[in-house]
Amino acid sequence: MSIKRYILTPISLIFLAETILFAQEPDFFLPGNVIPNLETPSDQEVHFDITSEPIVDINIDAVGLIPSGVSGFPNDLWASSKVETIREKISNLDPNMIPAALELFFILLLAEAKPPWDSSGEGKLFLSRVDKLIEYGALEQANELMERSGGVGNEFDTRRFDIALLTDTEHVPCSGIKSKAIKAPSFSHQIYCFVRLGEWKNAVLVFEAAKTIGDFTPQEEQIVTIFLFPELALSIGNQEFDKLTPLFFRMLKDSGFYNYHQNIKPSLAYHLKSSSPEWRTRIESLEKLVRSNSLPFETMLVAYTESKPPSIDGVWERVRVVQALEKAIASQNTLEIKDLFLQGFSLMEDVGLSVHYTEYFVPRVLPHIIEFGRIAPSYYFPAILYDFTVEEIELMAPSNREENLLYALRTGDLAKATPSTPLEQGIISGLTKTSSPKDALSNMAIKGKFGEALLDILSILQDVNQASPNEIGRAIAGLTSLGLQQTAREVAIQILVIKHEKLNR
Q: How far apart are CA 93 and CA 110, in angstroms?
């Protein structure tokens, strides 16, 4: 099983986690801040018994789901770095990285490793990793990581509640709040649960108390007001709120006042992928989650084939082409397959999904894009993104210099590679030459800061369209110096194909 399968499959994560730590599973929600305990009806009260045992003698910052024997990373990847330095670098990375780099980042977030030397054991680095997984919409992975931690306190409770809100399991912590078995992380959480459980009067009492002590920011107070008094929302007007947390997102959405826009964070898109009544919203939410590496491409296709697209622009053009391609594959219509496959690749490249697209469709269209025993020239660049088996790789036999370079990267035989552009030269140099000890990335790795060096490499790769050939070559060299040659070659292939597509439009 590949690392990608470990990243995307929750069952695999459970299996890995159980090989790492042996402790009693923590309950979903644990006591947090002191919140007013208001009287609740006794009839049909839900009892939520909590029993939890923290993992003994384990620094929470060390908890992970992928052991070093599987990740390929050293167990001391964080050991020589400072907690705050790593947290800041993790926070600054966004999901616009090319897929190979993004996959590497996920492994880093999920890796089991020794904690940084200055870790207090409170789980600050652990929570930063969980926050990034939630931000990227990797809710299953974040939840598995939280379950392994045994962490207690308001910071952990808030993340558990965030995950519950986005995965439609908020009834678990809310039932615990009603039965007084657990305490809510904040007044806003308690208000949400009281309303959800039908205790509107208690919710209003908490709201008034929170306003009295100044617990809300102006935006938070406005959102809670909309949630409690929807009729007043009309006077507030139609507006967009900034930096919505999962809780305030759900308050607006549950009240019918959430305004969807394409720049929605993957974390919120996770909830909309199945809950939105709008087909387009569900599709675009799934596209965002596939692009952030949180869901496999196949999950998006289910929504793509749900109905007939109403028009032929934007997302509907992608839907139309994919539906037609599926139909052509089913009927084995070679001419249509060849035409539609290239159309789909171009359309998917526009939204950053071309790599995922080729990984899924190349094996299915392969017999139709072969001419004279090899991949036809028009299909070479899309097809090279697929990781061919040893038996299949000869289908990619090159016919010109550009193809020869890509073939060398795919096979790992770089001796025959002939780079000509600055970007190609930087890539080949990074793959074949030892980094200078003066280079910061190399120096960091030498000093035992493997994880920190990898985060700096990923910061270069998060926008390859803006990075210079020299910087890309430096990132490739950094991956090579860390012993990640295969990933370095995969990154190089994806960069060259993406650049080629943009130049030839």
A: 15
